Amino acid sequence: RIVGEASFIPRGATGEDDGYLALFAFDPVTRVSDFVLLNAAHLEAEPSASLCRCRVIVASLLDWSCQPRSG
Known about the structure:
Elements lengths: L1 E2 L3 E4 L8 E9 L4 E8 L9 E10 L6 E4 L3
Antiparallel strand pairs: 1-3, 2-3, 3-4, 4-5, 5-6
């Protein structure tokens, strides 16, 4: 997978890593992207959420659009 730049989303004020990293992960074989949330305190763990399996048109957290995967 090719992973884009992550953005930190704070959850609370208990620690520097209390929050999530939001990013796009692109699979060049299937040409499909996932929007992924990782627990910033436990990066080695499985993702907290994978919100979209789509073909990304613009892969920026500030400006992006997504087309649902067909098939």
